[in-house]
Design brief:
about 45% helix; alpha/beta; 11 helices; DNA polymerase, domain 1; Rossmann fold
Length: about 260
């Protein structure tokens, strides 16, 4: 068991993150049933959640899906996630089957129109934390680092020979070179996020973003002190204020 024993332990599952990982884990040797249906995603997803339930022994458990039609972020920035390939048809066909499995296991699942799974997980995690739960967000997505506290942690599923990991505040800050977990928002706002097509500030990468936030604390603090920057970096930062603020908004997990 990686998680700590607790009589109020909630696991929140980022459904599509696990579904995609399960599907591609078997991409070279897909699981095909007698009807010719590719069940790789169903098989891998189900095994993952059953293993977590068996080993980590959560007292509460829920799965959160992204809704169809995108989120408010595409209204703000139409190019958000526009760089992603279309969802494979086999995954689309697997989702109803996965929901049937969850129904059979009596595991609740939720989604909220107009919001991503990240937002609903964030809302549920913070609500549960306030009610005294130890919360584990099961996802490999670095965006969730912004939500991490002493009682809300990331449970990063294992892959191949790499075991699962628990990321608390210390692990998140060490991974991104930050002082606090809430700085993950501005870290992504500055460097961008290629997987979500968040632009960030051109020319600012991970190391520079970490350095700037350690020195100036936040994007707001940075733009209040751009005269302390030098050369091309100052030019890039000052010329892309609006892009930085847009990227910060896109990277923020909504909790209301």
């Amino acid at each position: 068991m990686l998680t700590s024993p607790s009589d109020k332990k909630l696991f929140l599952i980022d459904a599509y993150a696990l579904i995609f990982r399960a599907y591609y884990a078997f991409i070279k040797n897909p699981r095909i049933n007698s009807k010719g249906i590719n069940t790789s995603a169903v098989f891998g997803f189900t095994n993952s959640i059953l293993e977590v339930i068996r080993i980590e022994k959560p007292t509460h458990f829920a799965v959160v899906f992204d809704p169809p039609g995108g989120s408010f972020r595409t209204e703000i920035y139409p190019e958000y996630k526009a760089n992603r390939d279309a969802t494979p048809e086999d995954i689309k066909l697997s989702v109803p089957l996965i929901k049937k499995v969850l129904d059979g296991l009596q595991i609740p699942y939720r989604m909220e129109m107009g919001y991503e799974a990240d937002d609903l997980i964030g809302y549920l995690a913070k609500k549960a934390e306030a009610e005294g739960y130890d919360v584990y967000m099961m996802t490999p997505d670095k965006d969730f680092g912004q939500l991490v506290t002493d009682r809300v942690k990331m449970y990063r599923p294992g892959r191949g020979r790499n075991p699962a990991e628990i990321w608390g505040p210390e692990e998140v800050c060490a991974r991104f070179g930050l002082n606090r977990t809430d700085q993950v928002i501005d870290y992504l706002g500055l460097m961008g996020d290629a997987s979500d097509n968040i632009p960030g500030v051109p020319g600012v990468g991970a190391k520079t973003a970490s350095k700037l936030l350690c020195e100036f604390d936040s994007i707001d603090g940075l733009y209040e002190n751009t005269e302390k920057l030098k050369g091309k970096l100052r030019e890039k930062v000052e010329a892309n204020h609006d892009l930085a603020m847009l990227s910060q908004k896109l990277a923020t997990i909504e909790l209301d």
